[in-house]
Structure formats: structure tokens, C-alpha cells
Specification:
By secondary structure, this protein is of the alpha/beta class. It has one domain: 3-Layer(aba) Sandwich (Leucine Aminopeptidase, subunit E, domain 1), CATH 3.40.220. Helices cover 37% and strands 20% of the residues. Strand 5, helix 4 and strand 6 form a beta-alpha-beta unit.
Length: 162
């Protein structure tokens, strides 16, 4: 079972083995946390992401952390909310599970997540927090996982879901 913590803060400043990026399918830095991670990691990240040739929604790919305090960045494109009838919940669950699998494959012991798909992708925050929390808590490997919430609303939603 994963050990699960929730903090409020900036994921680009967290000292862990891997941070997870709420990426787009092109793995090209966008808005929100994705853009923040790309800016903080530096231009080498853009080049590394181009070599990965994108990533399907719910899957996860890994790059070095470059200028971040994390050794690795695990990129996972979350689902865009289309009302909940387009497999969004399963795709979001897959984001968390596949990211945790990539962490284990890369011998990571500590992983930090943002709230995936709850920004510009409009996934309802409370529902996303419940899906994320269950996926992390049910992952059967000894990892220390931290949910890094950028704002108070997100922090409160994850505390309630935990």
C-alpha cells in the first residue's frame, strides 16, 4: 500500500524522486501545472518530450527532471471532461495507476502528483479527488505519494476525499 500525504504548495519545488505532470497528449508544455513544470525544468524538457512522440490519455511516459529537484518527470495526459459519459473516470484512474507503475519501474520511492484534469480540462474536483485518492491508496507498492495542491479549494477537496 502506498503511503499518502496531501500538502498545499508548488509541485515544481517538491523534493521527491518523481513528480507527475498533468500533460497534454502532445507532451508540449501548455497551461497550468504543465506549463509551470516545463518552465521550471528548462528547455531540455521540451527536447526530451518531442522524442517521446506524444502520449495517449491515461498512459504515462518518463523524462529526466532536468532543472527540477525531482530526478524524473512522469507525464500523463488526463481526460477532458465531456459530462462523464465518455470513460473519463476510468481514464483518470489510469493516469494515476500508470504513473505509479512508471515510478516503480524507475526505482522511485517518493512521488508527487498534481490534481490531474481539474484545471482547464474541467473534471469535477470532488469526483477527481475521490478517484485519485482511491487509485493511490489501492496501489499495492511501498511508495510515499504526495498530492501537491496548488490552491486551498483543491487542498480541501483532497483532504475530504482521503
Amino acid at each position: 500500500m502506498a503511503n499518502f500525504n496531501i500538502i498545499k504548495g508548488d509541485i515544481t519545488k517538491v523534493h521527491v524522486d518523481a513528480i507527475v505532470n498533468a500533460a497534454n497528449t502532445a507532451l508540449a508544455g501548455g497551461d497550468g501545472v504543465d506549463g509551470a513544470i516545463h518552465r521550471a525544468a528548462g528547455s531540455q524538457l521540451d527536447e526530451a518530450c518531442r522524442k517521446l512522440n506524444g502520449c495517449p490519455t491515461g498512459e504515462a511516459k518518463v523524462t529526466p527532471g532536468f532543472n527540477l529537484p525531482a530526478k524524473f518527470i512522469i507525464h500523463t495526459p488526463g481526460p477532458i471532461w465531456h459530462g462523464g459519459n465518455h470513460n473519463e473516470a476510468q481514464l483518470l484512474r489510469n493516469c494515476y495507476v500508470n504513473s505509479l507503475k512508471r515510478a516503480v519501474e524507475n526505482h522511485c520511492l517518493t512521488v508527487a502528483f498534481p490534481s490531474i484534469s481539474t484545471g482547464i480540462y474541467d473534471f469535477p474536483l470532488n469526483q477527481a479527488a475521490k478517484i485519485a485518492t482511491e487509485a493511490i491508496k489501492n496501489f499495492n507498492m511501498p511508495l510515499d505519494v504526495t498530492m501537491v495542491c496548488f490552491d486551498s479549494e483543491t487542498y480541501q477537496a483532497y483532504l475530504q476525499a482521503k
